[in-house]
Amino acid sequence: MRKSILAIVVFLWAISGFAQKVDYNKHYYSVINQAELLLISEQHDKALAQYYAAFKNVPTPLARDIFNAAVCATLTGDYESAFKLLDQLIVKGTDITFIKSMEVFSALVNDSRWEIFVNNYPRNRKIYLQTINVPLRKELEWMAALDQHFRLKDNGMAVYQDTIAQIDKNNIDRFNGIIEKFGFPGEDLIGVENPASAPPYHTILNHLCHKASMGMGKGIAEINFPLQEFVKFGKLSPYRFANFIDQQGKPVYGNTVFYRLDNSPELRVLVLGEKGLKKINKNRASVGLESLEDYQKKVLFALKDSRFIFNFNGSIVSLNGMSAKEKEAFIQQSKVVE
Q1: Whose CA is closest to 183, among 226, 144, 212?
Q2: Confidence class of residue 220 from pLDDT cuts 50, 70 and 90?
Q3: 246: which residues sit within 8 A by CB, 6+ positions away?
Q4: Does 15 have pLDDT greater than 90?
Q5: pLDDT tens track for 40-56
Q6: How far apart (Å, rounded) are the C-alpha atoms in residues 48 and 54?
Q7: Which residues contact 77 (CB under 8 A, 6 or more apart)?
């Protein structure tokens, strides 16, 4: 058993190095897009086939895609594939308690293979821990905790402004150092404890971009390495990247696609001219994202079906505190989503 585990670990290390040679923009994201369009039209069997086609093109599929494929397999009654996909999630770091908590997998519990899956968990968990950089993951989690510590205190941003600014600077300096030494901390490097949650570096980069939108700092430009390249090689989700960039102020990728006025349940979408839509779609395609039209379909689907994981951060924004004039101008530039 020990030799078997070691062989798997060596294999995973090998494909991790190979992953940097594969262009996910060309060979992965577009195929996943087709799988998701089939998924939202409830063609789960065809969606599963597309997921497998995408997985064959790259050495390390993304965790949320493996999860969604496992859901498709479960819904179509292909339990054998579902268990194999869930095993892959465990090897990527997903805790079995998360899987047990998902109602969509309840049908698997009554299958004879469920006990085997549970019994294999310690072995697969061990593979995960031997594959990733555990100290690095813990350090990133600590950095994220520091990012939040003073912000969460009463009136924290005002009282601890200087302390927060220094922590933010230290975090970005260290994040640059991490990339320089280890590469970008993607799923193959630090694993995925929960495919529905953000990676530990998210809050750090999120605040970096948010401050840039307020004229404080250079945002993503403070990262010494081109994040778009990490998207290309499957280290960073294109959706998370688009969220970071658009949060800085200018809508480059159309990441925020729907708006709510004063927390109204009514969704509104900006009316873009043909030229503006063409430009955004060109930008989206450059990082492996689907068209804005397809993106809108997926965001709306994610609102009504919680069985799948999409992680569309910042796709819907509530506009609060606008003056009557500003509100009227926005209404004129947008339309209600039917």
Answers
A1: 226
A2: very high
A3: 252, 253, 254, 255, 256, 314
A4: no
A5: 999 999 999 999 999 99
A6: 10
A7: none
Angstrom distance (rounded) from CA 304 to CA 36: 15
- Other C-beta atoms within 10 Å of 271: how many? 11
Report the 3 state secondary structure along the chain: CHHHHHHHHHHHHHHHHHHCCCCHHHHCHHHHHHHHHHHHCCCHHHHHHHHHHHHHHCCCCCHHHHHHHHHHHHHCCCHHHHHHHHHHHHHCCCCHHHHHHCHHHHHHHCCCHHHHHHHHHHHHHHHHHHHCCHHHHHHHHHHHHHHHHCCCCCCHHHHCHHHHHHHHHHHHHHHHHHHHHHCCCCHHHHCCCCCCCCCCCHHHHHHHHHHHHCCCCCHHHHCCCCHHHHHHCCCCCHHHHHHHHHHCCCCCCCCCCEEEECCCCCCEEECCCHHHHHHHHHHHHHCCCCCHHHHHHHHHHHHHCCCCCCCCCCCEEEECCCCHHHHHHHHHHEEECC
Sequence-ordered list of residues with C-beta below 8 angstroms from that of 178, at least 6 positions apart, any chain: 136, 139, 140, 185
Paired with 259 in beta bridges are: 268, 317
Distance between CA atoms of residues 89 and 81, nearest Å: 13
30-40 per-position pLDDT tens digit:
999 999 999 99
Is there a contact between 265 and 318 (Cβ–Cβ < 8 Å)? no
Arithmetic mean of pLDDT, 157-163: 88
Q: What number is the average pLDDT over the span 288-297?
A: 96
Q: How far is CA 165 from the centre of its chain?
A: 26
Greatest alpha-carbon pair distance for the chain in Å reads: 70
